[in-house]
Specification:
Strand order of the largest sheet: 7-6-5-8-9-10-11
Distance between the termini: 13 Å
Shape: globular
Helix content: 25-40%
CATH superfamily of the largest domain: Formyl transferase, N-terminal domain
Number of helices: 9
Largest sheet: 7 strands, mixed
CATH class of the largest domain: Alpha Beta
Low-confidence stretches: none
CATH topology of the largest domain: Rossmann fold
Strand content: 25-35%
Order of helices and strands: EHEEHEEHEHEHEHEHEEHEEH
Length: 294
């Protein structure tokens, strides 16, 4: 009999007997466990379980209902996803004029490094249209001088393209609160400093003026608080104080920004990220489950 694979995700405050409760439940209903990953981070329990439903003794609707009831009973968030019905996530990229982050994302997507697809490039200037067009991507822009109108248009475009994740590829606008709420923990920004140091405008120039010897860039989830969202990835470079100009520092930073942003997007698409108590936790991820062929 061929397998019918599903992934069971459980997240909540750690407590005794969680694994046993779910393992007993699936065993009692003739469900076979194929693989399991679990960890506890800052008192938060995270479990991903790959199961085979081929011989289960209840319907799929009953399975989902009973698992959700079990989750409520022990105050855990539970999600069940059929392995073969996982839709490739759709990424929308927001840009202004700088091309390096968009170019890196397109290169990684084209080389099949994403478990998802870039589906649109949206901006507030027309400058990067040739790059998107060459990649075969829909491009549209609207001036951001009228910010309410611009962001209303942005959200309409995102809805039209059915976007799951937004990447701010040096998009030089502050995302409004309602958009942040609509895409909670689904907007990734690249900031040109090692946050929490040098938030706000011209961070490379701030680092150069302060004479720091190491700075870098940060990929983070966007929240209502500017440049204070949960950090996903950071990378660093050295400043040769007294020799490097402010422009040298900026150029060094740009060499990292595209890679850091694109790697953060990859990790999101691989489902390796979960936000717990305002911090990004790296979990073993579902990549291995998604590739499970045995």
């Amino acid at each position: 009999m061929s397998q019918i694979k599903a992934v069971l995700n459980v997240i909540g405050r750690d407590q005794k007997g969680v694994v046993a409760r779910f393992a007993t439940f699936v065993a009692e209903n003739q469900i076979n466990i194929l693989d399991i990953e679990q960890q506890v981070v800052n008192g938060e329990f995270i479990m991903d379980m790959l199961v085979d439903l081929a011989e289960m003794s209840l319907s799929l609707d009953e399975l989902i209902t009973k698992l959700l009831e079990l989750g409520v009973e022990i105050d855990m968030q539970v999600r069940v996803t059929l392995h073969d019905q996982r839709r490739r996530k759709r990424v929308g990229v927001l840009v202004t004029k700088e091309a390096h982050c968009l170019e890196q994302m397109i290169a990684d997507w084209k080389s099949s490094q994403y478990r998802g697809d870039i589906v649109c490039v949206l901006g507030n200037h027309p400058d990067l249209e040739p790059i998107a067009t060459e990649a075969g991507l829909p491009f549209a822009y609207m001036s951001s001088k009228d910010k309410p109108a611009h962001f209303k248009w942005i959200q309409e475009q995102l809805k039209t393209h059915d976007v799951d994740l937004i990447a701010l590829a040096r998009y030089m606008q502050i995302v409004p609160e309602d958009m942040v709420q609509n895409f909670q923990h689904r907007i990734i920004n690249i900031h040109p400093s090692l946050l929490p140091y040098f938030p706000g405008a011209k961070p490379y120039h701030q680092a150069w003026e302060r004479g720091v010897r190491v700075t870098g860039c940060t990929a983070h989830f966007v929240t209502e608080d500017l440049d204070e969202g949960p950090t996903i990835l950071q990378d660093v470079f050295h400043i040769d104080v007294g020799t490097d100009t402010a422009e040298d520092v900026r150029e060094k930073g740009q060499l990292l920004e595209g890679a850091v942003l694109s790697n953060a997007v990859k990790m999101y698409l691989d489902e390796k990220l979960v936000v717990v108590d305002g911090k990004v936790v790296f979990r073993p991820g579902l990549s291995r489950f998604l590739d499970h062929t045995e």
